[in-house]
Design a protein that fits this description.
The complex is a heterodimer of chains A (about 625) and B (about 575).
Chain A (H helix, E strand, L loop, with lengths): L41 H8 L3 H34 L4 H51 L4 H7 L1 H43 L1 H21 L3 H24 L1 H6 L5 H23 L1 H10 L2 H17 L5 H43 L17 E8 L8 E8 L4 E5 L6 H7 L8 E6 L2 E2 L5 H6 L1 E4 L8 E2 H5 L8 H10 L3 H6 L7 E2 L8 H14 L4 E5 L7 H14 L4 E5 L11 E6 L2 E6 L1 H7 L2 H14 L1
Parallel strand pairs in A: 3-10, 3-11, 6-9, 9-10
Antiparallel strand pairs in A: 1-2, 1-4, 4-5, 7-8, 11-12
Helix pairs in contact in A: 1-12, 2-3, 2-5, 2-12, 3-5, 5-6, 5-12, 6-10, 6-11, 6-12, 7-9, 11-12, 16-18, 20-21
Chain B lengths: L1 H7 L4 H22 L1 H8 L6 H48 L9 H24 L1 H21 L1 H48 L1 H6 L8 H48 L5 H42 L19 E8 L8 E8 L4 E5 L6 H8 L7 E6 L2 E2 L5 H6 L1 E4 L10 H6 L7 H10 L3 H6 L17 H15 L3 E5 L7 H16 L4 E5 L3 H4 L4 E6 L2 E6 L1 H5 L4 H10 L7
Parallel strand pairs in B: 3-8, 3-9, 6-7, 7-8
Antiparallel strand pairs in B: 1-2, 1-4, 4-5, 9-10
Helix pairs in contact in B: 2-4, 2-6, 3-4, 3-10, 4-5, 5-7, 5-10, 6-7, 6-10, 7-9, 7-10, 9-10, 14-16
Classes of the chains: A alpha/beta (about 625), B alpha/beta (about 575).
Bound molecules: adenosine-5'-triphosphate (ATP) (2 copies) and magnesium ion (2 copies).
């Protein structure tokens, strides 16, 4: 009795028991930078599953027991039939019948429980693996060079954390048990049929074998088609995510709807890819579907069996098992065939995940050296994002604690790059960056990052409450401290005006805050932090004069005694810095105080004039 | 559920056909199995009686051939339906999304949308076909078998029949539990998906906060929540599942024992008993498979509900007779009051007018409502009271596309698409010529960037433009607006990330645009350079107009506008 307990239903996933071509895929990658799925990584799979190997082993074992037990009722019925047909019912045969009934019933119960427990173990193993791999992924992503994120896109991260793992789930929780169970069922079932009548057994099994061959033919180019489909789905997802992310731009420039066209094209491509696959395999998959139908087996057994019976080379009694056990064979093998598909996909996903886990992280120093003072030193630093153009060339400067160093220069000169190099979001190509004389590469990332507070040019907020957004760098800060920081950043009143004050949830893009409000929120973050190094990249660029002055005053207090790097285009905000570095095309072109530089009549004084001219007119 | 599916899908004829085909197939399958009764009865006699079996065998052969042919026909129809269903649903959904108000596009909803468009729609497409058919078979084959069994042995048929209500109720319970678990699990997965995207986009912030390696506590919480929900689902569904399967199994045991009993007591013929046992297996097996199918069906049902939840969101109301042309570029605000969420009003009684050809400067402290005014002109939101007129017509009376065709906006939050610089400009004007592109780039000081980058116009800008510097991104977005050359240009802090020289050139370019006597320009800025050329100044505070007048007049007052200028004058007084 093929009773199944299956937890498929609690997860959303597709069942492909009856579709010969399994073409579903819910990949939601939103980037094209993914390598197309390739069928490698049996090893990757083993490594990822190593921690749950005992679960999987017992899961497999129980599936095998369940499969064998599941055949007992069929065989019992077949044997009862054979028994009563072969000779009239007498007392001894009555006992035999009841014994067979007993075997059948206990087989069915055994199956019920072993499949139940096996599936349960599989799912617990799955739950654990999912959780562990996800945690590992997050940890690993945290130490990859930042450039990797820009290159791969956040969609790829999502794909690994959701889609790939869901495929692996299919494998851990279902495919493995299904394949082993089905194999055992086939072996036992076929063995029994062989014992009853070898000729008929071979004929029945040949239908199954033919079906498996057709299926393999239908699936011969699955990798190509799957990757085409996955890419198309990735594009669908990318187009929709882009559309939603850039919704304001989209709404304004809906001239012809380029993005919608992209979306439509992706959907069409998906349909076409599917169509191509279906067309290519239409005969083989139809054939395998027909051969896999129990009605086909019924027909074949009927025709050949009756032929043999007619010729007196087979007794009716020996034909009956084929109606009972034989017809059940496809029901056992179909899951196995789909299970192998599941394993295949699981392997592709496992290798995707391992690819990420194998990406070389930024070297993490074990050294526990903590700098004694926080002087910042750039020593002949060169750096390139793409290996072609240098964003920074041979840059040297020193920023002493208690002083302010301003970085100015045309857009694209490399100012923000400097702010990215100091916290080691990237490693320099040449030269060295030192804090208190210690190379940043030999500091542990904890020491390094806790020594600085950063305000970035591109504002990034987290989907969380305002409170948590402010104290992200110091999760233990008290509400009072947060409020004080918010007051200093001139944002307290705004927050108080929000429906739930500091507990108001904000969107990742800061949806409900105005441009300047978001900026002040990030300033509050920096004010709250007590780090000895402060880096402000265009921190007050979109503030009005009043709040700018107020914020600048607050910052002035914050930075007493600290080493401070300020990047600004509004030159009046940095006019009193201890030193001003003027950058152009990644190189230091001028250096000095405001007055020195004005008198030098170079780039700085040109910029100064450009900025004040508008006022005079 | 079926009803809902039909409702979702505009052309559901193909689904109906498919349902019909599979219904027919299932009944045929049951009938063919039923033929075993007469056939075995004839053949299990001491000497097989082929003569008696022959007509039945012939019927069976014909039936089988019909069965196989129809199966072969139904398969491609199924694939076709699946493809059409998902493609049409995707188009349908996306078209709907384009009409949603801006406020809907929160981070959460965006993640949901992406997931629904791929995973859920894909599932509906495939499941409607690959799960629907077996579900029909699993229900109709047993029912047909019951009918047939009644003809031959009503006692066993009654046992079969008695199993059904138990099966039905336990199945319903299992389905309910599994459906609830699926919803919880999907919510948890969506949350992880959102956090994963955040992990990518806010990575610098996370690292700077020392949370690079652990992820935010929200991320950790999301992972743990998923783990917990998963295990909870497993725990809760254990008993209902076991019960259903137990019912089916008990049914089997009862039939087996009862059949054997009748057999031993000679109440039924041997042939009949054997046929009954075979049918019993065929009766119970599909029933057993239902437990898996019901889970998948419920999952599909939930997917349908998620799709529907998006389709149910109201889009901005459409005018009955939309105005299809903007006569002139004048903008008139009369007593406009607006609030984003209903609680606090963001704008109160705003009135001002921008004649065609004029340039208006919007100034005011951060949070005073400047950006909001720009959004309202483009009708990203509808106002609560008052009216906004463009060319004398209320913005709500325009066809939305027509309205936006004549407006170009440079946003405060620059957003670039992960494509080349050129493609990012072409979004504004897909058919722009090379020369137009070059002019827009030159005006926006973008040329310098393009000539510096190794791939020039084809340089990819990265996700949300992350591979460009702040000022470079901003210049791309300015060039995009310049390229559009609309009648109305709205500029929100165009040069906040630009160095003084670039800023001046762009101010100049804006001035040139504003010279066109048919064009209306509104500029928001905190810096004098960009505001110098304004014809009038609207000064806002806390959502109200506090000053309105010519720049000359306002410069000598002590409002926001004057402060902008004073700041530069007293620049040197400031000490860090
Ligand atoms: N992630 C990146 N990948 C590739 N190139 C980059 C990346 N980030 C910046 N660049 C390039 O490096 C150069 C320096 O960029 P950077 O962000 O340091 O400029 P910036 O001085 O801060 O300019 P702005 O004032 O406009 O912010 C620019 O030409 C920019 O295009
Ligand atoms: N989507 C939104 N939902 C709810 N409130 C919002 C939303 N967008 C803005 N607000 C609120 O409306 C007010 C006005 O915001 P607006 O963006 O118009 O200010 P602004 O004048 O442009 O300020 P800034 O100079 O800082 O950009 C602010 O208090 C802001 O918090
Ligand atoms: Mg920068
Ligand atoms: Mg604004």
């Amino acid at each position: 009795m093929n009773i199944k307990i299956n937890y498929k239903k609690i997860e959303h996933e597709r069942l492909k028991k009856t579709a010969s071509v399994n073409y579903s895929s819910d990949s939601t990658a939103h980037t094209e930078a993914l390598p197309p799925p390739r069928l490698i990584g049996g090893g990757a799979l083993m490594r990822l599953l190593y921690p749950v190997r005992f679960y999987l082993l017992s899961c497999a074992l129980l599936s095998a027991v369940g499969a064998a037990a599941g055949l007992a009722p069929y065989i019992a019925i077949a044997e009862i039939s054979r028994l009563v047909i072969a000779r009239p019912i007498i007392d001894t045969s009555i006992n035999e019948i009841w014994f067979l009934v007993f075997i059948g019933c206990s087989g069915a119960s055994l199956r019920l429980f072993s499949v139940f427990i096996s599936s349960r173990i599989g799912h617990y193993a799955d739950a654990r693996t999912l959780h562990e791999i996800r945690t590992k992924l997050v940890a690993h992503l945290g130490i990859l060079p930042l450039g990797w994120f820009l290159f791969t896109g956040s969609g790829a991260i999502k794909k690994a954390m959701i889609n790939d793992l869901e495929e692996m789930h299919q494998l851990i929780a279902h495919a493995l048990g299904e394949v082993i169970g089905a194999t055992i069922a086939i072996v036992v079932g076929f063995g029994y049929l062989l014992y009853v009548d070898p000729r008929m057994a071979c004929i029945s099994i040949s239908v199954i074998v033919l079906m498996a061959i057709c299926f393999q033919i239908a699936m011969r180019s699955i990798s190509i088609h799957m990757s085409r489909l996955t890419i198309a789905e990735g594009k669908i997802s990318a187009a929709s995510v882009e559309y939603a992310d850039g919704i304001t731009v989209v709404k304004t420039y809906n001239t012809g709807g380029i993005l919608l066209d992209r979306f439509a094209a992706a959907v069409d491509e998906h349909t076409k890819a599917m169509l191509a696959w279906v067309l290519e395999t239409r005969y083989s998959s139809t054939l395998s579907r027909l051969l896999g139908s129990e009605m086909t087996i019924l027909g074949v057994v009927m025709v050949t069996g009756l032929f043999f019976v007619y010729n007196d080379s087979l007794s009716m009694a020996n034909l009956l098992p084929f109606f009972i056990v034989g017809i059940g064979l496809p029901t056992s093998i179909v899951p196995a065939i789909h299970g192998t598909q599941g394993i295949r996909k699981g392997r592709v996903s496992a290798s995707n995940i391992e690819n990420i886990l194998n990406k070389k992280p930024i070297h993490q120093a074990e050294d526990k050296t903590t700098p004694e003072e926080y002087q910042i030193e750039f020593d002949k630093v060169s750096f390139s994002y793409d290996g072609v153009n240098n964003a920074i060339t041979e840059l040297s400067f020193i920023c002493e604690p208690g002083t302010i160093t301003a970085l100015v220069g045309p857009s694209g000169a490399g100012k923000s790059t400097i702010a990215n190099l100091l916290p080691r979001f990237y490693d320099v190509d040449k030269g060295a960056i030192r804090i208190g004389g210690i190379d940043v590469r030999s500091m542990s990332s904890k020491t390094l990052l806790s020594s600085m507070s950063l305000v970035f040019q591109s504002i990034a907020l987290l989907r969380d409450s305002i409170l948590e957004n402010i104290r992200i760098g110091r999760p233990d800060a008290s509400l009072e401290e947060v409020v004080n920081a918010a007051k200093a950043a001139q944002i307290h009143d705004v927050i108080e005006g929000l429906p739930e004050g500091y507990n108001t949830l904000i969107d990742g893009s800061g949806g409900r805050l105005s441009g300047g409000e978001k900026q002040r929120l990030t300033i509050a973050r920096a004010i709250l932090s007590k780090a000895p190094i402060v880096i402000l990249d265009e921190a007050t660029a979109s503030l009005d004069p009043d709040s700018e002055t107020a914020v600048q005053n607050a910052l002035a207090e914050l930075i007493i005694g600290k080493a401070v790097l300020v990047i600004a285009h509004r030159l009046h905000t940095i006019a009193s810095a201890n030193q001003i570095l003027v950058l152009k095309d990644g190189q230091l072109v001028e250096k000095g105080t405001h007055m020195n530089l004005l008198n030098a009549s170079g780039l700085y004084s040109r910029m100064w004039n450009a900025q004040t001219e508008g006022v005079k007119s | 559920m079926i009803k809902r599916l039909y409702k979702l899908w505009p052309s559901s004829g193909i689904l109906a056909r498919l349902t019909l085909l599979h219904t027919f197939l299932a009944i045929l399958q049951g009938l063919l199995l039923g033929l075993l009764f007469p056939i075995l009865k004839a053949l299990l006699k001491a000497k097989p009686d082929f003569g008696e079996a022959e007509p039945w065998l012939k019927i069976g052969a014909v039936g089988l051939i019909i069965y196989l042919i129809i199966t072969a026909i139904a398969l491609p129809i199924g694939f076709d339906a699946s493809m059409k269903l998902s493609a049409q649903l995707r188009h349908h959904l996306m078209t709907h999304v384009t009409r949603l108000p801006l406020g809907w596009f929160t981070g959460n909803n965006k993640t949901k949308l992406a997931r629904i468009l791929t995973a859920d729609v894909g599932k509906i497409g495939t499941l409607a076909v690959t799960i629907g058919a077996p579900a029909i078979t699993s229900v109709l084959v047993p029912i047909t078998i019951i009918f047939i069994t009644f003809i031959f042995n009503w006692q066993i048929a009654l046992i079969f029949l008695a199993i059904l209500p138990f099966a039905y109720f336990t199945l319903q319970r299992a389905a309910r539990v599994s459906s609830e678990a699926e919803i919880e699990l999907d919510d948890a997965a969506t949350e992880i998906a959102g956090r994963a995207i955040e992990l990518g986009q806010a990575q610098p912030v996370l690292r700077a906060a020392g949370q690079g390696v652990t992820g935010t506590y929200r991320m950790r919480h999301a992972l743990e929540e998923h783990h917990r929900v998963y295990k909870k689902g497993l725990g809760r569904s254990a008993v209902p599942d076991l019960m259903y399967t137990g019912v089916v199994m008990s049914g089997f045991i009862i039939v087996l024992i009862f059949g054997s009993f009748q057999l031993i007591n000679g109440r039924i013929l041997i042939a009949e008993a054997v046929a009954l046992l075979i049918l019993a297996v065929r009766f119970l097996e599909p029933l057993g498979a239902l437990i898996e199918l019901i889970g998948a069906l419920r999952a599909m049902d939930n997917s349908i509900a998620r799709v529907q939840s998006i389709l149910d969101i109201n889009s901005l109301p459409k005018p009955a007779n939309p105005v299809l042309e903007i006569k002139n570029s004048s903008i008139l605000f009369s007593d406009v009051t607006f609030s984003y969420e209903g609680k606090t009003t963001t704008l109160t009684d705003i009135s001002f007018s921008c004649p065609p050809g004029s340039t208006t400067a919007l100034v005011g402290p951060s949070g005073s409502g400047k950006t909001t005014i720009i959004r309202l002109i483009a009708r990203f939101y509808d106002i609560n009271s008052g009216s906004i007129r463009i060319g004398g017509v209320d913005v709500r009376d325009y066809d939305n596309e027509v309205l936006l065709n004549d407006i170009a906006i440079i946003f405060q939050d620059v957003y670039l698409f992960d494509a080349s610089i050129e493609e990012n400009l072409l979004i504004a004007k897909p058919n722009a010529t090379r020369a137009e592109l070059e002019i827009a780039a030159t005006d926006a000081c973008l040329h310098e960037v393009i000539s510096r980058l190794p791939n020039g116009w084809n340089s990819k800008v990265g996700e949300a433009g992350a591979q460009l510097s702040g000022g470079e991104r901003q210049r791309v977005s300015i060039a995009r607006a310049f390229l559009k050359k609309s009648k109305i240009i709205l500029i929100d802090e165009a040069s906040s990330a630009l160095d003084p020289e670039n800023e001046r050139s762009i101010a100049q370019a804006i001035n040139n645009l504003a010279k066109d006597s048919t064009r209306t320009v509104i500029v928001i800025a905190h810096r004098p350079t960009t505001l110098a050329a304004a014809d009038q100044v609207v000064s806002l505070d806390n959502g109200k107009v506090v000053e309105l007048g010519s720049p000359e007049a306002l410069r000598t007052s002590d409002g926001s506008f004057a402060k902008l200028f004073q700041q530069y004058e007293k620049a040197r007084d400031w000490h860090m």
